Amino acid sequence: MFALLTNDDGIYAPGLAALEDAVNNEFRTLVVAPSTEQSGVGHGITFLSPLTAKEVSRGEKRCGWAVDGSPADAVKLGVSEICPQRPDLIISGINAGLNAGINVLYSGTVAAAIEGSFFGITSIAVSLEWDDQMNFERAAQFASGLVKKLISLRPPAGSLFNINIPTAALVETPEVRVVPMSVARYGEAFERRVDPRGRDYYWASNDPPPPPSAQDSDVTALAEGVITITPLEYDLTNRTRLVELREVDFLSTS
User: Fold this and answer.
1) Spatial distance between the Cα atoms of 9 and 34, rounded to a whole number of angstroms
2) Which of 4, 11, 120, 143 fits as disulfide partner to 33, beta carbons 3.0 to 4.6 Å?
3) What's the rounded Cα separation, in Å, for the pair 109 and 106?
4) Would you say the C-alpha torsion 217, 223, 228, 232 has a positive or negative sign?
5) What is the pTM of this model?
6) pLDDT at 25
7) What is the per-residue DSSP string for 180-238?
8) What is the pLDDT of residue 122?
């Protein structure tokens, strides 16, 4: 099985290197990733300027292909032009920081996986909770096992999964829980400051996630130290409202 590896932290990120080392025993891999950090860019793509890509190395070890664009760009270009064959699997990560709750919608890590799903390729995003001493190697061991298990279930082509690993899960035998994505709002505050020229500027406060609720979700499970797996879809259609609106005569004046 051939896997395309990517991320949003940049091709030299330690999380990507750890992931590659961990899955190389299971898959043939090729790394195609942004040349620089692209955290929080969501699903942006480049179409008003050309993209460049080049093979890069760390010392004598070949790292893969660096694309001067977004994570979605890296996947699009990787699948369409760079990979020697169509990937069977795309893995995005390991991200430095969780991508849970509504942050999924901002995440470049998840966006790369979504782009893979657009191609009809099973795609998995993997993120590790931020810590001053992030143990990407240990997280990659868990991630590799979870990816192997998900693939063994033979999910339909284009299936999309989001894995989050809390720091607490790395120091003991963890629990793995399949949970929905939380849609609770948080992280909306800004701190206003004044620059040396007297102009206001604003710094996002990075508020912590909302307190745990009775409803089980990725956010609540991660707060308990549980590794989470969330199956995702990119179709944003509200099916219930779709049916309701089809009954409306929009040209009626009443």
Assistant:
1) 8
2) 11
3) 9
4) positive
5) 0.91
6) 86
7) PPP-------EEEEE-TTS-EEEEE--PPPPPP-SS--HHHHHHTT-EEEEEE------
8) 98
Model confidence at 254: pLDDT above 80: no
Confirm if 8 and 108 have CB atoms less than 8 A apart.
yes
Rg of the chain (C-alpha set): 20
In whole angstroms, what separates CA 89 from the centre of its chain?
A: 14
Q: Do residues 124 and 57 make contact, with C-beta atoms less than 8 angstroms apart?
A: no
Residue 195 lies in a domain: no
Q: Please check whether residue 207 lies inside any domain of the structure.
A: no
Q: Tell whether 38 is covered by a domain.
A: yes
Place of tokens 């963890």: 174
The boundaries of the domain holding residue 119 are 2-182+213-245
The answer as to whether 32 is a domain residue is: yes
pLDDT in tens, 8-45: 999 999 999 999 999 998 899 999 999 998 888 899 99
Say how far residue 157 (Cα) sits from the centre of its chain.
18
